[in-house]
Design goal:
Elements: E1 11-14, H1 30-35, H2 37-43, E2 47-50, E3 54-55, E4 67-71, H3 78-90, E5 94-99, H4 109-114, E6 128-129, E7 149-152, E8 157-160, H5 175-189, E9 195-198, H6 219-229, E10 237-241, H7 247-254, E11 263-265, H8 268-271, H9 284-298, E12 305-306, H10 316-319, H11 327-339, E13 344-348, H12 369-380, H13 385-395, H14 432-437, H15 442-455, H16 457-461, E14 463-466, E15 473-480, E16 483-490, E17 496-497, E18 505-509, E19 518-519, E20 524-528
Helix pairs in contact: 7-9, 11-15, 12-13
The structure holds alpha-D-glucopyranose (GLC) and calcium ion.
Calcium ion (CA) binds at residues 21-23, 25, 27, 29.
């Protein structure tokens, strides 16, 4: 397979609203990202994906865009963004922008026009349908609760919104809409960005009246067209968010000869937790089966993303690890397990500190539309506060959105104003300043792990072999040009026995010594043979 710059890169994902606030209005901003570039450089990441900073009424924290060509005033200005791109470039860091083109805000000028009537030239930029038996066209549901159809009094038709009512779905069947999107993408490419993360891109080929949302018939035709019209000749990093992708579907997106995307986020490992609001602890054998499946299927015919966390998922150390006694050890173990595989790592802000879930005490502490809608729905069903809050603590997206913990000063150094969402109470213990000083911190372990990947091609190009261990241990080999790297992880808080050969050179360990036949709780090691 042809080699690409994004294969040996490490991505750091930033949720700007919660990263760093420079003007003390309580909201993180683009200048805050620029201010922290040296921190990201210290960590060793060389790509930053920033969640949306475009003009937006913020119904879904920026995933409801009202103007693709301008920056939301709370986030800063276009000059701030251009400065970020050039300051990042000086440090060898590329900026990947979020591309949200399944829907816009209802305040986008296209939708404002579309609502004016059936013969408005922008009407067909969105998805409209007549009522059926006096009600919604069918029963498809919005991800954020309730029907995905909203009635428009003025025209007597419904419009589609797979997310909130303020996020009407675009109609990709309209070639003029597609042209407008490609022009907009080229505007951003011309600013010198490193690529796009494509929000819920699997929905753009939808056929809502046939109840097809993800993986619609035209999806890949549109992506091939987009590739040809925009980033195709530039070798940018493009990553699609694809909740419904299995390995066969993923190959459709990223097999090189198909000229679509570089890679996709697939969520099968996250989905092992089961029902969103009723999650269970994931058992290691299921996880290992998936790791093996993806590593084997994509080798030489696609490319994997490697991630545990993003702004939609609770904190990995609280869900897959142990955020109590073994927080540090388990955070390091999970990093080894994930990021020694083949693919491009995506580290979400604060993950490298071992930041934990927020353990909200009241719904008033939450901001996320999905969480608040769920709360309201369940309250109406008579469910108790405590019962709902338990779900919120386990699964709310706000767990990932509490401010970045920079230091032990007030508000964790995130802002000197009032933060738009509260800081996690454990910031005086878990914060970047303290972890930079501590050579055994999660932060410095991530730094070492990233450096190790960069220094050994085997992690980038090597093949993958899962070793048949019992279900407390995850062990795999990476093999490349006659060399072998062995990765050994104890997934439990107990000591566990193994007969694995570990007699090699220790490259990385969360106990700072070669493992023995009894692995210590959450022990993880990378051994070179
Ligand atoms: C994606 C985003 C999420 C957003 C949704 C709608 O899943 O990651 O944050 O709410 O799309 O745009
Ligand atoms: Ca600010």
């Amino acid at each position: 397979m042809e080699k690409h710059w994004w294969q040996n890169s490490v991505v750091y994902q930033i949720y700007p609203k919660s990263f760093c606030d420079t003007n003390n209005d309580g909201i993180g901003d683009i200048n805050g990202i620029t201010e922290k570039l040296d921190y990201i450089k210290y960590l060793g990441a060389d790509i930053i994906w920033i969640c949306p900073v475009y003009c937006s009424p913020q119904d879904d924290n920026g995933y409801d865009i009202s103007d693709y060509y301008n920056i939301n005033p709370e986030a800063g200005t276009m000059e701030d963004l251009e400065r970020l791109i050039s300051e990042a470039d000086k440090r060898g860091i590329k900026i990947v922008m979020d591309l949200v083109v399944n829907h816009t805000s209802d305040e986008h000028k296209w939708f404002v026009e579309a609502k004016k009537g059936k013969d408005n030239p922008y009407r067909d930029y969105y998805v409209w349908a007549d009522p059926v038996n006096g009600g919604a066209p069918n029963d498809i549901r919005s991800t954020f609760g309730g029907s995905a159809w909203e009635f428009d009094e003025a025209s007597g038709q419904y419009y589609l919104h797979l997310f909130s009512k303020k996020q009407p779905d675009l109609n990709w069947e309209n070639p003029r809409l597609r042209r407008d999107i490609y022009d907009m993408m080229n505007f951003w490419i011309d600013k010198g960005i490193g690529g796009f993360r494509m929000d819920v891109i699997e929905y753009i080929g939808k056929k809502p009246l046939e109840k097809i949302t993800a993986n619609g018939p035209m999806l890949h035709k549109y992506l091939q067209e987009m590739n040809a019209e925009t980033f195709g000749r530039k070798n940018l990093l493009t990553v699609g968010e694809c909740w419904a992708a299995d390995t066969d579907i993923a190959k459709l997106y990223c097999a090189p000869e198909r000229h679509e995307l570089s890679m996709v986020f697939q969520f099968e490992h996250i989905s092992l937790r089961g029902n969103k609001w009723n999650p269970k602890k994931v058992n290691l054998s299921d996880l290992k089966n998936l790791m093996n499946k993806w590593q084997t299927a994509m080798h030489n015919c696609g490319w994997n993303t490697l991630f545990w966390n993003n702004h939609d998922i609770p904190r990995v150390v609280s869900t897959f690890g142990n955020d109590g006694e073994y927080r540090v050890q388990s955070a390091k173990m999970l990093a080894v397990m994930m990021y020694c595989m083949q693919g491009t790592p995506f580290i979400f802000q604060g993950e490298e500190l071992g930041m934990t879930n927020a353990y909200f005490k009241s719904i008033d502490e939450c901001r996320d539309i999905e969480t608040l809608n769920m709360y309201k729905e369940r309250k109406e069903q008579g469910i108790s506060d405590e019962n709902i809050l338990e779900k919120v603590r386990a699964s709310s997206r706000d767990n990932a959105r509490t401010p970045m913990q920079w230091d032990s000063s007030e508000n964790a150094g995130f802002t000197r104003g009032t933060p738009w969402i509260g800081v996690n109470g454990n910031y005086s213990e878990i914060n970047a300043a303290a972890e930079m000083q501590d050579k055994n911190s999660v932060l410095n372990f991530y730094k070492k792990l990233i450096a190790m990947r960069k220094n050994h091609d085997i992690f980038i190009y090597g093949s993958f072999v899962m070793l048949p261990e019992n279900d407390d241990i995850c062990a795999y080999d990476r093999i490349y040009e006659g060399k072998r790297m062995r990765v050994v992880c104890n997934y439990t808080d107990q000591s566990v026995h193994t007969d694995l050969d570990m007699n090699g050179t220790l490259l990385l360990s969360n106990y700072n010594s070669l493992p023995e036949s009894t692995l210590r709780p959450y022990e993880a090691a990378v051994i070179e043979f």
